[in-house]
Sequence to fold (246 residues):
Amino acid sequence: MANKSSIEWTESTWNPVTGCSKISPGCQYCYAERFAKRLQAMGQPNYKNGFKLTLHEHVLKQPLSWKKPQMIFVNSMSDLFHRDVPLEFIQKVFETMRKAHWHTFQLLTKRSPRLLEVDKYLSWPDNVWMGVSIENMAFTSRADHLRQTNAKIKFLSLEPLLGPLPNLNLTNIDWVIVGGESGPKARPMETEWILEIRDQCQKTNVPFFFKQWGGKNKKKNGRLLEGRTWDGMPVTKISNQFFPMP
Fold:
């Protein structure tokens, strides 16, 4: 049985790696760190090391047993391109994704230099979507690194959005997700920042997905923007899904 996810833009999660380390301001109040410590306290075996980076060889083939096609977020509790994840392990993850061709796999990283470094050693199947997280203008170079990879579908996750991203370059970008930070110490996100990105997506015909307002009570704050939800996703042969923008 798949590990069902409450993340709005995916269906399930698969965590062959858990744990991470902070690399930029978007990591400051990491949800995965809070969750990992909770799972450790509950005695969950995969989190006996808490949020220390840990490889889990025993779950590498897990998606092959999930027969129903689905969107799978890879390493929701880590970053596959962390320096402490060996290239050989990354390649094993990619081999499973290639074999599980009926699924769509979604990867996210803040470590775009490492992604670019190992790109030439990876085989990118059509069912793998590669994204980078960008929280403010200081880290837009991550999108530049992503553009240089051989990933078939490239996307941006602008969450937590901590500042405006004027004139965001969406060349060769297939999807944009925007979301506010959630949790007890959530930093605010301005409506103007979101609308500017949404408008840029519309101008360039890039699917736009508004994930959440976030805040201390993300459920109460919801995910409506200008009175509606925005659930744009890329058109692919694998996903067979598309939610067009007006």
The domain at 10-221 is CATH 3.80.30 (pyruvate-formate lyase- activating enzyme).
